[in-house]
Amino acid sequence: MLKKPRLFTAGPTPLHPEAIRAAAGPVPYHRTPEFEARFDRVQTGLRAAFRTQGPVAVLTTSGTGAMEAALASLFAFDDRVVVVAGGKFGARWGEIGTAYGLDVVEMTIEPGQPVTPAEVATLVERSAPVRGLFLTASETSTGTIYDVRAIADAVRDVEPGIVTVVDAITSVGALPIATDDWGLDAVVGGAQKAFMVPPGLAFVACSPRGWELVGNESATPRYYLDLRKYAASAKKSQTPFTPGIGLLLALEAALDAIDEVGGIGVLEDNADRLATACRAAAAALDLELLSAAPSPAVTAIKAPVPGTGPEIVAAMLDRHGAQLSAGQGELKPHIFRIGHIGYVDDLDLLGVLGALEGVLADRGHAVTAGAGVAAAAASLAAARAQEGSSG
Amino acid sequence: MLKKPRLFTAGPTPLHPEAIRAAAGPVPYHRTPEFEARFDRVQTGLRAAFRTQGPVAVLTTSGTGAMEAALASLFAFDDRVVVVAGGKFGARWGEIGTAYGLDVVEMTIEPGQPVTPAEVATLVERSAPVRGLFLTASETSTGTIYDVRAIADAVRDVEPGIVTVVDAITSVGALPIATDDWGLDAVVGGAQKAFMVPPGLAFVACSPRGWELVGNESATPRYYLDLRKYAASAKKSQTPFTPGIGLLLALEAALDAIDEVGGIGVLEDNADRLATACRAAAAALDLELLSAAPSPAVTAIKAPVPGTGPEIVAAMLDRHGAQLSAGQGELKPHIFRIGHIGYVDDLDLLGVLGALEGVLADRGHAVTAGAGVAAAAASLAAARAQEGSSG
Asked: Looking at B191-266, which runs of residues are DSSP E strands?
């Protein structure tokens, strides 16, 4: 039998065909007016995606490189910062901060559990003076969203000058992130998520105040990851170092494709629609979500029998060519995750759910065959009706 | 929302990624030893697909061009031939025959109905002397298979020297076609079907006797479509005219991919598995098949309300980006067709069925949501179990 390799992970995600085509073409030299026009077009698309007026730094790194660039460009040795860590990626802020000698106060949240803005504000108040706050908009390891807008607002009530930095790597394009309006001093994104582009590029957007802070003198050692260089180059429609040119052309094509379907909001709605349908299917199949505040980017589902998550992931890959994500760290044995950001559509979701039903049934999980697919289809139909009536 | 464009037609079919990659590369010059080695590799793959020892003519034409090449190379003005026409493509043999001045006796079968070998033999006997017999292994317009092996055998009992020509364009790779063993004098195929390659190449395989007959002098005017030229060139690992070189490289890549999954038999089993599952879904959804002898290449389903086939096809495309086929000719209003040859897998089928359920329900067709997907999944699971126990 044939099995098409399909990604249902939260990154890398399925590539947009136009991005593939662009990346497969010849690579032009980048110190030319033609490249600069294309870089400007990429800036326009990224500004829309991050809802910001300023430049968006385009780094040739993974998402972690851009996280580090934001931290190194905004903080210095001994700065006290609060890190809200809901999982592996939240904890990474703490790891990078420690590597740079920051005084990290980590707030560890039980995987999948929400945190109230008041709880974070209280911790910041108790830890005063605190210079920085590190958040994760969607924690990929647990499929959980945190209301970064409300948390940032509540924290500013107790520490008005605090510098807020958000990991939105899996969030941009999956849920609205308003860098400027929400006063987020730095927001980090990555090409391999909702942007439908291969890994290798990462982004940092800053609020006007964020860019001001970046411009201040600081003793933190940095060079490749110095955001000042990226802002200065962006003014000249350039990058400070040779960028992943092919990836940038792929990103340009993907941003065109996003505009063609109606903009970043359509992409966010698409992820939300698919996530809602995926949760409806999970409920219909008597499956429990890990998260009390599930993310539109990725749905984390508890294995019906604890400890069997990796076996479900393996069976989906082996039998159907469908690559889901297992859990990470301590969660690894107990959950599996279905990503639905970027270039994913109804047929993808209905197909993977149809396959999942069979894999679970074979493992003794009693479900009515077709119930998950039917629930997802009904959810998608309801979203279509809503869109039709509001559009 | 995002909608990926997906082909569920019986041709063109979804392309294999390796075929796309090969076709997207630079085109080499073809009168070189390197090209000849690649052409030989293509010949090896095509011989396996057509189950023949002789050369397989590779024409740069659509399938119809290869049908005409077979007819023009084997028949002459005034030859009496019997054409078994179960639909649009069967009837095409009669049209080409008439264009070449053959004396065509057409046996028109009600769409979707089978024909017995005895019925064809009786017609040949009554029409004696008959020089040729034209068959269609799978009639794409109605989704019906005809047992060409049994028909050819029965006809040879009454007309031993008859020249048998088979349109297997949608059949090769979807059901076994044994050119040599079944004594088929010419068998026609096309790249854009189970071969997972873009349209533009077509094939003619001949039994040893077929090639002998092709070599005979004949007054039929032909040049580009003269199979003698293709056989002579194939001996030198070449084509007589500049071929679609990019398509040939795509075909080479696709044939490698077919070998990698285990050969043409695996591709045939895959189509059969998906067709069986598709029929199970139709039954569970109270949908009637058009055909009494349904094809593994394409399933023709009657619209629940006569006359609404094109609306179902339009809704699937508009809502989900899934391109099904409508009917053709008189059948156009009343059926829709789902292709499942070539690069199609379980998730494709489960997804398109999940979407179809919703489209039908919205049109007032009462079905249990999920029932079609569940029936297809159960059918695929049964096939997997069988394969496991026999493999």
From this structure: 202-205
Contact state of A1 with B347 under an 8 Å Cβ cutoff: no
Chain B, 305 to 324: residues with Cβ < 8 Å from chain A are 319-322
CA B270/CA A232 separation, integer angstroms: 57
Q: Kindly report the CATH number assigned to the domain that includes residue A276.
A: 3.90.1150.10
Vertex A131: Cα angle to A126 and A133 (nearest 5): 80
Tell me, yes or no, whether A228 and A371 share the same domain. no
The reply to whether B253 and B283 lie within a common domain is no
pLDDT, mean of residues B3-9: 96
CA-nearest residue to A263 within chain B is B1
**Cβ within 8 Å, pair A369-B374:** yes
Confidence of residue A367 (pLDDT cuts 50, 70, 90): confident
The chain B residue lying nearest A387, using CA atoms, is: B1
Find how far residue A16's CA is from the centre of its chain: 17
Report chain B residues whose CB lies below 8 A from the CB of A267: 2
Q: How does residue A56 score in pLDDT terms, banded at 50, 70 and 90?
A: very high
Predicted confidence band of residue A390 (pLDDT cuts 50, 70, 90): low
Between the alpha carbon of residue B340 and those of residues B270, B317, B325, the distances in Å are: 9, 17, 12
**Helix, strand, coil shares, percent, chain B, to 5:** 45, 15, 40
What share of chain A has pLDDT > 90, as a percent?
95
* Same domain (yes/no): B168, B291: no
Between B329 and B263, name the one with better pLDDT: B263
Identity of the residue in A270, A351, A369 whose CB atom sits nearest the CB atom of B1? A270
Neighboring chain B residues of A353 at a CB cutoff of 8 Å: 354
Q: Which of residues 353-372 of B touch A (CB under 8 A)?
A: 353-355, 357-358, 362, 368-372
B350-368 mean pLDDT = 95
> Are both A86 and A222 inside the same structural domain?
yes
